[in-house]
């Protein structure tokens, strides 16, 4: 939620249509305010800073981070107001035809744009021939935020389920019960659709679980990461088996954007975010325990989608500034970036997790993320550490309302203080 401070990336953001309010900037001694988007932008929320749109320059081709780009793959965004959501598919198809590329996803809500397979030189020609395109960004790799350590539990899907227990992290944030209708979109590797400890929305790409991984069809989790995230958010309570989630029993929706190896592309992830923006409703939450190098396209999509759905974003596990990673660096009224801590259930105190990314201008809360037991593939359970595991604690909290301050944790070796979020 904090005001954004992007430092060296301001040039790329300006090219994408981001505008910084007067009095704030990377070198001003205060955090700059991310206030608008020139293309695909959403209206300001009540209480948000005033906005003043500045058009993005046409013909801007944004390169991927070094070593992360996907060859001959681009994400293109239409100029604001040039293409309606209902006209996006037709305009995208025409642009692909004129440019000689192969059309991929079409984005209608979080962005108005499309992904396309086309050589770099042809991508520039495509923009030249289509004055309604504001900019194109090279697609790049994105990955789940790997668990720092894993201890195999009941991972084999045995017919005998473990006796129900409430993990310490759930207790730490006052979780374990939920009465409501809000849903959690898990933008990840999918979910074990038949896990007995989860209420998973059936496959239905008009509001239920859906796959966005190119050349695959099912939102079934083949990795385990998305299922683990889901259990921390909403594993059932009172069924006598497994674990209990923060918003126990809430509906979880698989938005599969990463493959069985836990990797994917920004173009696929944006398709998942666009889906959430299209079918989500006020009170719903999206969890993104994934990340990569800086991406204007992905950041724009997340910011715009947060006008509808609250987003919980993992800060990352690189022991690095969270401002160096997308989408964790994005800030907005409905966006919460989460760092990780270990939790001592006896003393009820938290300790900074050494792997966690940081930056108090970006990170909103810190949650339990060390040795987290949750659901896994084949009806099983597993223990993993990481900001991926901390973030769904916040997603569960957000399903129940606004987070409360539950104490603080100081980052080791610094004076940075992070607030523990609770229900």
Automatic annotation (TrEMBL):
Signal peptide: 1-21
SUPFAM superfamilies: Protease propeptides/inhibitors, Subtilisin-like
Listed Pfam families: Peptidase_S8
Active site: 188 (charge relay system), 225 (charge relay system), 388 (charge relay system)
Claim: Kinase is one of the keywords in the record: no
Domain Peptidase S8/S53: 186-398
Gene3D superfamilies listed in its UniProt record: Peptidase S8 propeptide/proteinase inhibitor I9, Peptidase S8/S53 domain
Assigned keywords, A-Z: Hydrolase, Protease, Serine protease, Signal
InterPro entries: Peptidase_S8/S53_dom, Peptidase_S8/S53_dom_sf, Peptidase_S8_His-AS, Peptidase_S8_Ser-AS, Peptidase_S8_subtilisin-like, Peptidase_S8_subtilisin-rel, S8pro/Inhibitor_I9_sf
Family: Belongs to the peptidase S8 family.
Protein name: S8 family serine peptidase
């Amino acid at each position: 939620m904090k005001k954004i401070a992007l430092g060296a990336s301001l040039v790329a953001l300006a090219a994408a249509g981001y505008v910084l309010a007067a009095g704030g900037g990377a070198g001003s001694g205060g955090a700059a305010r991310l206030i608008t988007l020139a293309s695909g932008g959403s209206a300001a929320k009540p209480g948000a800073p005033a906005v003043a749109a500045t058009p993005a320059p046409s013909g801007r081709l944004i390169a991927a981070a070094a070593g992360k780009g996907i060859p001959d793959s681009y994400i293109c965004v239409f100029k604001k107001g040039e293409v309606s959501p209902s006209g996006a598919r037709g305009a995208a198809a025409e642009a692909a035809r004129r440019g000689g590329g192969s059309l991929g996803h079409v984005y209608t809500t979080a962005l108005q744009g499309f992904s396309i397979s086309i050589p770099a030189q042809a991508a520039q020609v495509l923009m030249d021939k289509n004055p309604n395109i504001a900019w194109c960004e090279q697609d790049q790799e994105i990955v789940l935020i790997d668990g720092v350590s894993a201890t195999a539990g009941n991972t084999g899907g045995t017919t005998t389920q473990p006796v129900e227990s409430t993990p310490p992290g759930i207790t730490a944030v006052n979780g374990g019960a939920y009465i409501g209708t809000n849903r959690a979109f898990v933008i990840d590797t999918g979910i074990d659709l038949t896990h007995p400890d989860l209420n998973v929305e059936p496959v239905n790409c008009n509001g239920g679980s859906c796959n966005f991984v190119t050349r695959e069809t099912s939102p079934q989790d083949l990795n385990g990461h998305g299922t683990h995230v889901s259990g921390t958010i909403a594993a059932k309570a009172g069924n006598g088996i497994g674990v209990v989630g923060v918003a126990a029993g809430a509906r979880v929706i698989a938005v599969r954007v990463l493959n069985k190896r836990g990797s994917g592309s920004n173009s696929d992830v944006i398709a998942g975010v666009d889906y959430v923006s299209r079918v989500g409703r006020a009170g719903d939450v999206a969890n993104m325990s994934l990340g990569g190098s800086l991406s204007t396209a992905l950041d724009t999509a997340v910011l715009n989608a947060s006008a509808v759905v609250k987003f919980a974003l993992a800060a990352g596990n690189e022991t690095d500034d969270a401002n160096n990673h997308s989408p964790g660096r994005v800030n907005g009224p409905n966006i919460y970036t989460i760092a990780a801590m270990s939790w001592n259930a006896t003393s009820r105190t938290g300790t900074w997790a050494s792997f966690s990314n940081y930056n108090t201008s970006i990170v909103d809360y810190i949650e339990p993320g060390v040795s987290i037991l949750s659901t896994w593939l084949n009806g099983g359970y597993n223990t993993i550490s990481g900001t991926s595991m901390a973030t769904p604690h916040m997603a569960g909290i957000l399903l129940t309302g606004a987070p409360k301050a539950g104490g603080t944790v100081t980052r080791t070796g610094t004076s940075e203080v992070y607030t523990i979020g609770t229900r």
